[in-house]
Amino acid sequence: MDCLFIVSSIVIALITFVYLTFKWKYLYWKNRGMQYLEPSFPLGNIPFKKIHFTQFSVDALKLKETSPLIGAYLVTKPVAVPLKVDLIQNILVKDFSSFHDRGVYVNEVDDPLSAHMFNLDGERWKTVRTKLSPTFTSGKMKFMFSTVVEVAERFNHTLAGLIKIKSEIELVDLLERFTTDVIGSCAFGIECNSLKDPNFIFRHYGQKVTEVPLLRHLFVSAFPNFARKIHMRVIDKDIADFFIETVRKTIDYREKNNVRRNDFMDLLIEINKDSNENSEGVGISKKLSIEDMAAQAFLFFVAGFETSSATMVFCLYELALNSDIQEKCRQEIDDVLKKYDENLTYEAIEEMTYLDQTIKETLRKYPPIGFLIRKAVRDYPVPNTKVVIEKGMEVYIPLYGIHHDPEIYPNPEKFNPDRFLPEEMKNRSPGSFLAFGDGPRNCVGQRFAKMQTRIGLVTLLKNYRFRTCVKTPVPMVIEPFRGILSPKGSKLFLEVEKV
């Protein structure tokens, strides 16, 4: 009985200590006289039942009339949330020198794939970005264009076979297989063919990456130093081993056989040839290790296959709900292709302006990532206020909330591609559309993402008509436990028929 009493007392004391510690940490913004979102134990401002940050974004924007900036908590970590578009533009562009870091978890020793360009900070990020940017010029896109079209033709053949069996098609998996094959070919020079074989190893590891628990990401974001001390990794070891070994074998084969494909892997090889192996500099001014190369290739793979496939899924969903917009897109595609003798070329997709507006409206309503992160590298006085964003403070920009702000986009739940007519866009601040970020840390691969998405949608809309079916959720329900915006259960069924 005495032992039970002692154990119970210790447990109660520990719980009380933890609870009081959280309550003390939740005084950070109050003690500074800042307006803030009231946190809840133990996740702070992360919705316990709806973990996706879309809800956090929407809640934050409700306070924009009272303050240009509010405080919030990621578990116990205080973060700043700018609400005014002008302030957001300052952070991302004008005053970028004060916010050039992201402060994202990097642990090269235990989690080598975490040291990719998206996560890196400071001079190391700048060097990597400068070296890798040539991969995504318009010239490189034109070179890769035919490869993406070839994969799209296989995609068309696969879908044609499926609709002979059934008309209700699950599109999330199918489109992820399409983008997996595109990235496998353009980044690694490997014919994945997961469209034919859904169990192909690249597809297998792509799925494993998306299944990494969101709570693990949240933990390393909230407690990065502790996570490094306990040797925590975000990417499982078997995933890291697969990508590192794939890059190793690809590079060995190309160097031994003098193979050139003018793709992402070739660029990494050329960077190493041009680098000084004995350099003491930072970033990749010195020779890249296989792990460094694998980390950058891993970023290309993950960012390229999941975000683009999600955009196409949501676009087809909205087109199924809005048949008039779908027909207008299809008519534009047919008209432009007639000018090019039915050949899908780089120049042809550049002329499909209404399709581009439709994709932008999809990215407005369903941005793949609900927020942008920046980290103050020095104290930053917020203009026209007495507020100071302290050095080391992370800034969470509520991208999803901005995209759904009725003052910027009237009736934001309505799908309307005309929002992105040139004359409409001129009336809005550039900071009102942030699907690819903004400023020097914007998405380096946005040209590739746009090209891949356009080719996929042109191929589908030219050949198929999409309608809702009994399995289609109306309205859309978002999966709360996935980092990238995705339909509930990561599935979306539409009825598909041949045009």
The average pLDDT score comes to 90
Report the sheet-strand fraction. 5-15%
CATH architecture: Orthogonal Bundle
Number of structural domains: 1
Largest sheet: 4 strands, mixed
| Contiguous runs where pLDDT drops below 50 for at least 5 residues | 277-284
| SSE pattern | HHHEEHHHEHHHHHHHHHHEEEEHHHEE
How would you describe this protein?
With 499 residues, the protein is α+β, with helices and mostly antiparallel strands. It has 19 helices and 9 strands. The chain has a single domain, classed as Cytochrome P450 (Cytochrome p450). The chain is 51% helix and 7% strand. Helix 6 packs parallel to helix 19. It is globular and about 80 Å long. About 2% of the residues have low confidence. Its cofactor is heme.
Keywords:
alpha+beta, Cytochrome p450, 4-stranded mixed β-sheet, 3-stranded antiparallel β-sheet, 51% helix
